[in-house]
Structure formats: structure tokens, C-alpha cells
Specification:
The protein is mostly helical. The protein has 20 helices and no strands. The radius of gyration is 21 Å and the shape is globular.
């Protein structure tokens, strides 16, 4: 399977470099969390979560659609990229205005407002992130390795420096905004070096219409996904307090530190799935099954030791003041299994162009998460929010069973001979 081997090698490069970068990032985050303490760290975490809820406006759901179109029509790359960049710039500016305006209407008049305002401007500078999908579509994302590692080192050095100099959360928010600016600069420079200037790109009204027509379900699906991923910390702040947000997010950080692995695997194997779908139904089914088993196996292998040694992990990394976060870590870490499979399920629905199914799946997960948070947080505190996340995240992969085509293909997996073997 030379084609599949190429994708696997590309995954290897991406994973290795991101592991190196995330080790740096994780160590810096531990230092920042311990130094700030639960309350101050909770302020920053709340602001990040609040801003994240509006990120679906900034992306307008076009990323995966752009990725698909670049794979299908590589000869239209300049037109697709230019159109997507303009759309993202307009959407990012709109998202920043709405986020800041809503914060002043709904949030308490404290430092959170300033943090939210600073972080919101990152939406505009995140527009060049569309360049990532051009590299992925060419199965050359390993070329971005040096870029991301350099960014990780620079940004996390600045975070540590801010804390060492007693800069506080406002300066940390400034560093996060600078991260968006730095990454945008790197991407544009790297793309220009490899493939030529972005000024060769063009905007096409017809391409914009196609992208937006196909992406509007993704806008809603992305909105639902982001809301159910971040709303827990907003609820915790308003139903409990800021300190609880800091405790909760500290546990979540440990659980999510490895999420780049399934995301990278799914993102890099996506072209292989698309190409297999074109050539062979059996090969397509086989690759889906292999990807699902790989993701589930990795997730379970990570979850078991983390759940068993949660007490030791929290104490060693954060200290005694963060020990109330232990139950959250023990529960939340198991969400990684459904998160990994959910990422594959989302890519599958995009490949099949099942927009309605994607909408229903994401919407049901969001509604379930919100309801469970409202019910469980008052009763069980931050552990209740972790349970809400664990239960609701299972809805994404399980929702496939409610649609005819996915059911048929799941059934086909057990009919195709040697489906689980390469």
C-alpha cells in the first residue's frame, strides 16, 4: 500500500514535531498554572473559553470544505485559497466585534472584559490558517514542522518570561494574541517560499458561493462543537466561581494535551479516505475500520494510566492547591475515546457530504452537554461538568447508527474479508 504508506509517513513527521513542541508547551503551561494559582488561572481560562465560543463565526465552517475541494480540484488552488482567505478575514473581523460586544453586555465588569477584548483580535490574524489545508491537501504538512516547533518555543518562552517577571494574566493574553500574529507571518512566509506569493491568489464569487453553500451546515456544526467543548467553563464560572474554572481547566489541559494525535491522524489520512472512496468501496471501508481501531486503541491506552494515577499526576504537576481537580481528570480523560472517534466520524460525514447528519449529530451533542451541565454542576460541582462532557461526547460517534448509509457501511465492515488487515 504505497499510497497509504505516504500518508503514514506524513503523519509520522507531523506527530514527532508536534510532540516535541507540545512537550515544551506543556512544561510551560504547568509553570504558568502553578504560578498563577487556581483563581488567576481561572480568570484567563474563562476568557479563553468565552472567546473560543465565537470562533465558529471566524472560521465560518469553510476549513474542511476547502480541504476537500483542494484534494478534488488541485488545479484551482489559487482561486480556492484566495477566496477562502478573504472570507476568513471578513468573518474574523465580524467575530471579534460580536465577541467583544457580547462580553460587555453579559460579563461582569472585571478584568475578564479586558482579557476577552485582547484575545478577540486573534480571530483576524487566524485567517491565514487556511494555508495549512493547502499543505495537507498536497500531503506535505511535514514541511510545516519547523514552523510549528519554532512557534511553540517562542510563545512558551514568552509565557514563562511573563510569569517570571510577574507580568500577570493581561500580559499572558497579549502573548496569546502575538501567537496568532506570529503564526500568520510564518505561514505566509513559508507558503511564499515553497509555492509562491499569495498575491497570485484570486477571489471568485462563484467559488465563494460554492464554498459557503457547502459550508453553512459546517458553520452550525462547528458552532455546536465549539459550544459543547467550551461552555462547561462558562457555566462553572457563573454557577460556582472563578477558582473552580481554574481547577477544572487544569485537569482538562492534561486530558487534552495529546488530542493533537487523533486530530493529526484523521487530518492526514483524510486524503487517503477520499481517494479510496473514488477507487474501491471495500478499500474505503477497510481504511475507515483501520482508522477507527487505531484511534480507539490509542485513546484507551492513554486513558487507563491517567485515570489510575490521577492523584499523583495532579500533585506532581500542580501541587496541593489543585488536588480538587483529581476527580475531573479521572472522568474527563475517558472523553478522549469518543473525541478521537468523533473526529473520524466528522471527517466521514464530510467525505460523504452528509450535511444534515453532521448538523443533527453536533446539535444533539451541544444540547445534551448544556442540559447536563445545568443539571449536574449544582449537584456535583466541577466533577458534574466532567460527567456532562463524557456523556455528551459519546453522542457524536454513536449518532452514526441513526443514519442509513453509515449503518450499511458499518455492517459492510464485518462482511469485507480481512477488513482489519492491510
Amino acid at each position: 500500500m504505497p499510497g497509504f504508506k505516504r500518508y503514514f509517513e506524513n503523519v509520522g513527521w507531523s506527530v514527532i514535531t508536534k510532540i516535541a513542541g507540545l512537550v515544551v508547551s506543556f512544561l510551560a503551561t504547568i509553570y504558568v498554572v502553578k504560578s498563577l494559582g487556581p483563581t488567576n488561572y481561572g480568570l484567563l481560562s474563562y476568557a479563553i473559553s468565552y472567546v473560543s465560543i465565537f470562533s465558529f463565526i471566524a472560521t465560518i465552517g469553510i476549513d474542511q470544505v476547502l480541504y476537500r475541494e483542494l484534494i478534488r480540484f488541485p488545479e484551482r488552488s489559487d482561486e480556492l485559497m484566495g477566496t477562502s482567505l478573504i472570507l476568513r478575514l471578513l468573518a474574523g473581523s465580524t467575530a471579534a466585534v460580536i465577541c467583544i460586544g457580547s462580553a460587555y453586555l453579559t460579563s461582569a465588569n472585571d478584568i475578564s472584559l479586558l482579557l476577552i477584548s485582547i484575545l478577540s483580535f486573534a480571530f483576524i490574524f487566524n485567517a491565514p490558517q487556511v494555508i495549512n489545508y493547502e499543505f495537507q491537501a498536497r500531503v506535505e504538512s511535514k514541511r510545516l514542522s519547523q514552523l510549528w516547533f519554532a512557534s511553540y518555543v517562542i510563545i512558551n518562552f514568552l509565557k514563562v518570561t511573563v510569569i517570571f517577571l510577574n507580568g500577570g494574566v493581561i500580559y499572558l493574553a497579549g502573548v496569546l494574541l502575538f501567537e496568532a500574529i506570529l503564526n500568520a507571518s510564518y505561514l505566509i512566509w513559508f507558503r511564499t517560499k515553497k509555492y509562491g506569493s499569495i498575491f497570485r491568489w484570486s477571489f471568485s464569487g462563484s467559488a465563494a458561493k460554492i464554498i459557503l453553500t457547502d459550508s453553512w451546515p459546517m458553520i452550525l456544526a462547528t458552532a455546536f462543537s465549539i459550544i459543547y467543548a467550551r461552555i462547561d467553563q462558562v457555566f462553572i464560572k457563573h454557577l460556582i466561581d472563578t477558582t473552580s474554572v481554574g481547577l477544572y481547566d487544569a485537569a482538562v489541559r492534561i486530558s487534552e494535551v495529546w488530542y493533537f494525535v487523533p486530530t493529526t491522524i484523521v487530518g492526514t489520512f483524510f486524503p487517503a479516505l477520499i481517494n479510496a472512496k473514488k477507487s474501491s468501496s471495500d478499500e474505503y471501508t477497510k481504511r475507515l475500520a483501520q482508522s477507527a481501531l487505531l484511534l480507539a486503541g490509542i485513546s484507551i491506552a492513554v486513558s487507563i494510566p491517567v485515570a489510575l494515577f490521577a492523584n499523583q499526576i495532579i500533585y506532581i504537576l500542580y501541587g496541593a492547591s489543585f488536588m480538587p481537580a483529581v476527580p475531573v481528570l479521572q472522568i474527563y480523560i475517558w472523553s478522549s475515546v469518543s473525541t478521537a472517534l468523533g473526529s473520524l466520524a466528522t471527517s466521514y460525514l464530510i467525505a460523504e457530504n452528509m450535511r444534515k447528519a453532521l448538523f443533527i449529530s453536533s446539535c444533539s451533542t451541544m444540547v445534551m452537554n448544556i442540559i447536563l451541565n445545568i443539571i449536574l454542576i449544582p449537584k456535583y460541582g466541577i466533577a458534574g461538568s466532567a460527567w456532562a462532557t463524557f456523556i455528551s461526547y459519546m453522542a457524536v460517534p454513536l449518532s452514526l447508527l441513526f443514519f442509513r448509509l453509515p449503518r450499511q457501511q458499518i455492517y459492510q465492515i464485518f462482511r469485507v474479508k480481512n477488513v482489519l488487515h492491510s
